[in-house]
Design a protein that fits this description.
By secondary structure, this protein is mostly beta strands. The chain folds into 4 domains: 8-135, Neuraminidase, CATH 2.120.10; 146-297, Immunoglobulins (Immunoglobulin-like, Sandwich); 303-380, Immunoglobulins (Immunoglobulin-like); 388-467, Immunoglobulin-like, CATH 2.60.40.10. 0% of the residues lie in helices and 49% in strands. It has no helices and 43 strands. The N and C termini lie far apart (68 Å). Residues 228-268, 273-282 and 288-300 have low confidence and may be disordered.
Length: 471
Amino acid sequence: MQGNDGNFYGTTVGGPAFPTDWGSVFKITPQGTLTTLYRFTGGIDGEYPLGGLVQGKDGNFYGTTSGPSSAGPWGNVFLITPLGTLTNLYTFNDDNDDTDGGNPSAAMIQGSDGNFYGTTTTGGDGGGEGTVFRLNVGAEPVCGASINPPEAVYGSAGGSASVSVTASNGCAWRATSNVGFITITSGNSGSGNGTVGYTVNANTGDTPLTGTMTIAGQTFTVTQSGGSVENNAQVLVQANPTDGGTVRGGGTFTVGSSQQISASANSGWTFSSWNDGGAQIHNITVPPGGAIYTANFTAQPCTFKLSTESISLTAKGGSKSISVKASGSDCSWIAASNDSFITITGSSGTTVKFTVPGNTNTVPLTGTMTIAGQTFTVNQAAGGCTYKLSPKSGKLKATGGLAKVRVTPNLTDCAWTAVSNDPFITIVSSASGMGRGAISYSVAANTSTNVLKGTITIGGQTFSVTQTGAK
């Protein structure tokens, strides 16, 4: 499908190592440049997104997985942002008799009421033949919500501010950033009146930036000037009745018809100036009052350098960090993972911390993070999952009974399942797991004089069970 940004978005149901790859979500430009936004792991996020995607009124994409997950093996409904952050919204629990159904395999639609509608292929209370479902994800606009202000203009140094949401009691809403240089810091969702806090990252390039947030179904637009040249960019500061506002940058601030601001120029304003490494910095704090003021300033350029441009990890993965060095005045930055197997665990000061899980694929992985506008590459060696079973086989008397098998994978991120292949063997606990674990199974009493032989498949390994005959 074509998104509102002009790019095309879709899903795959396999990958380089099919069938052990579980599908992906991708973006492709009209010129043919393809980006993989997310790879499914077959774990709690599910597998095989057969139904494709639909773009909601909030600018995010919604879809379903039809395959198992460790939280409930009958598929999920998920939300994924245009930047590739995936959130599971609902997990189906079908066991052929659960009313919510399972294994959704067709695309959903968003109704005029903001809810999503779709179908499942199994489950329900009609004999396991599927269901029609409605999912309320707090979509907007359904309550006549409004935002104030509707836009903001920033200089290259960026900054932080907030947007007020006015909505009726019980009106649920959410806020999402549609671009990488705007980060929501508070108020991702709410009900009734609320406030959304956000930060605009420093723009170190020459080209001005324009981006949007979707807040309670409304579009909030941010315009930011380029940062490496003097630009005298105008900065609109919304001073709402409770919070006030602050403008900071280099150069001389002016208001109205070029009146220079001083501490006494406007009652209640505060003004300060200092020297920061040779650059003259000015700071104005505007009191509450609801007015919009315009300030002109000359931006100071910011440059960033990473301690290294790439890192190589073994199949076991691990936790690592990278340092960021900034030069310039009032330089802020953000870090974002561009691939699902890289998780940022901390981003503050001059350090970014991240983790990479064990590589359960039989092919190497390569992914990137964008840190302060720089590309950082993570390479991970090929892995794959192997399992050891202890004991290697089971031997039981004719009277039957309970027994246990310990499962030890080579990687802590390897998932496994246990399936009985013969009717006289029953799995009684831990039919699936991740990392080290154990399963319990029972064998019914053997009333014949024949020796019974059967198997259990555990993590792709065959576990043999032998039971003696009755005397």
